[in-house]
Each structure stands twice: as C-alpha cells, then as structure tokens.
Give the backbone structure.
Amino acid sequence: MGKIILTGDRPTGRLHLGHYVGSLRERVALQEKGGYDEMFVFIADVQALTDNAANPEKVRQNVIEVALDYLSVGLDPEKVTIFIQSMVPQLHEMTQFFSNLVTVARLQRNPTVKTEIRMRGFGEEGGEQQAFGSGVPVGFFTYPISQAADICFCKATTVPVGEDQEPMLEQCREIVRSFNTIYGPVLVEPEILLPSKSVCRRLPGTDGKAKMSKSLGNCIYLADDPAEVKKKVMSMFTDPGHLKVEDPGKVEGNCVFTYLDAFAEPEDFPRFWPEYGSLDEVKDHYRRGGLGDVKCKKFLLAVLEDRLAPIRERRARWEKDIPGVYEILRKGSEKACAVAAKTLHEMKDAMKINYFDDAALIAEQAEKYNR
Ligand code: TRP
C-alpha cells in the first residue's frame, strides 16, 4: 500500500520556529524526497473555531498567514495539496459517524485536551479538580474526533506533527480499529512521524520556558524581519550563572545551545564560525569557561538567518500574489473534497446506509410488503 502524508495547523497566528523544526522542515524534506502517493497539508480553521467561536475574525485573518508560511518554507502546490478544512464538508459527516464510536470517558482521558482546557480556563465551572467542567464547549471537547476525520478522509498513513499530537493519533487509531471491526475494513491506521532530533519535538521559547507559544510572547516567527530576529536572539535566555566570560557555563537549559542543537549543521562551522569544528567543541569551551554568550548568539543568529532569509524572500514573492494564494487553496480544497467524498461513500457502503444505491435493500423491502 502507498504512503499518504497528511498534516495541518490551526490558523490562530503566524507560524514560528517551533512549528518549523517540529514539522514544517520535515514536510519540505518529505516533499523533496518524494516516494509518496499524496501529500495533504491543511489549515484547520474548523478546529481553530472550537476555542475561538467568539473571534472568527482572528481565524479568518490567519488563514492567509498560515498559507503564506506554508508556501514560504517551500511547500510546492504542484507536489502538495494545500486546503482549508471548512471547505471540505464531508469531514463533518465523518466526524458525526465517528462520534458514535467514542465514549465521553475516553475523551476525558485525552491529556492534550486536558492541558488545553486548563490553559484556556474553560474548566472553571467544574472547579479546579475537574478539567471537564460544564463550561467546556462541546465542539472543543470533541475536537479529537473531528481530527480523526481530518486524518481518515484521505486514508493517511503518515502524520508529521509534534509529540503533543500523539494522543490525537492514538484516538484516531482507536476510531479506525473500531470502525473497521464493526463495519468492515475501509479506513487506515495512521502513524505519527516525529522529528528525529528530540530537541525539535518541543522547542523552548526564547525565554527558556518549556514551549514556544504565542500566548507566552516568546516566539521567533518565520515572518519576523532580520532586526526582530536579532533583537530576540540577543536577548535570549542563557545561563543565569554565567556572569563573566571566564566563568564556566551551563549548556543544558541554555536556549542558545538548545536552538543550536535544533538548527546547526556541521557545514555551518566553516561558513560562520571557522574557529570551531563542531557544536561539541563550542559546548566544551563554554562549559570550561572563556567563551562569551555574545559570540554564541552571533553564531546562532548567522545560522538562523541562513535558514530564514530564503523563507522571507519566498514570502515576499507570494505576498505580491494574494489572489493566487487563495486560488491555490481553492483548487486544493476541491481536490480534498473529491478524495473525501470517495472515502465517505466507502464508509457509508460499509455501514450499509447508501440506501439509494442499494438495489438489494430496495428489492428486499418491496418483497416484504408485497408478498
Ligand atoms: N491539532 C493540530 C494542532 O493543534 C492541528 C490539526 C488538526 C492536525 N487536524 C489535524 C494535525 C490532523 C495533523 C493531522 O496543531
């Protein structure tokens, strides 16, 4: 069986370096490597609305931002189908059928949803102890089911995402197994594809906090200009104990080194810091003492700029053709609809609810009433 790749992002803001090392870079590498049957990348506006119901304008504005970010990292609409979730109505029908296969208790165990509910303060009416108080919107509570439909409509085999999405993938696999057992073997169990370097699975923010996140204000965005990137890198969290250059420094928990782990390649040393042959040499020197933060930050900045400059250039070109970008999304959405309609038809066949195509059913009922 062929390989079908699918992934997506919520349009609630511009994409940042965490998205880049966690998934975008992987997608472009997959695209360049080829060898897959189809690759779908989509903008999850329906999912974004599950906790932004009162703010549809935010979602509406960010659809194009995410599309521009996709195109600017190098996703090629000739090789990848890019679409908008809400433009594929079949996903809702699938979600409805899937929701009959999932219990409330199962949804309540989803660790990602639990954390998100706590972060958003939805739990309040149920009290501190109860993540799922009555204040949680039903659509938000059930979004893992809708996410299973996102993955299943194209029978995705491979889903490149960050590790926070593992519970969603597990939920999807359970739904697939349940559907296939009850109705017949229609759907495919997907596998998660995590970045090979563990540091890329959860890139910390520039302040050293566990995750780069818009709400924490600790992001470097793909669309940031060079001055912004420089400012953010130069004020990055390092080792608070490393006061003088001569002091021994800590590399663990030091953002500059975490980012270098995520971004630096062996070729970067001859190009940007020929005094050192590898990141290990730099780390050893920093640990011994005698290597200042500013030098390390300048190297990191050179590496980041090397990656970001072509992204920025591509973005500038696409920004000049916004109607063309919407056209790409429209074509992609049409293609996704066709694929989803086919899978939905197969699902309904298996469920035996394609009544009008079911000559045997019609004949059987006619016979029953005209015996
Ligand atoms: N939940 C993902 C996120 O928050 C977005 C998403 C929605 C997704 N549906 C998906 C990712 C299906 C992969 C596959 O980023």
